[in-house]
Write a structure and sequence with these properties.
IS1016-like_transposase, five-stranded mixed sheet, single chain, alpha/beta, Tnp_ISXO2-like
Length: 149
Amino acid sequence: MKRKTGQRIGGRREFVAIDESHFRHKRKYGRGRMAGGWRRKNWVFGMLGVKDGHTRPILRLVEKRSRRHLIPYVQLHVRIGSAILSDEWRAYRILPALGYTHYTVNHSRYYVDPHTGAHTQHLERAWRSYKDTIWRLRGNRNDSLLSEH
């Protein structure tokens, strides 16, 4: 997350999965004090370049999940003409007009689109790994620790 420039993903042979996630502090076994983790407002926006089974993540802390906050990161880090896979979040509807090939998955109906074969499981699995690592390092106590990890 520290590196801000020079990170570009996508292209002819690499597709990009995008999604946002809330890294909140969870209590183990539902015990103890909450310590403000559930009131955290920042989201983590992830872009995962997938090419030949290898992944390259770009993660950014964003204040909100709106189009105004997410799309500038896509334009900065994803090459024009790339194939982007995402859920049907309203903020992503503008991507085809910006020059990207956009495939969506309706998670309330299925996890893999039966017509295109598009899915976001690469990024969903990556979220699980990132959250487990941060949880083990106890790096989710506040926003400054989260941004360092």
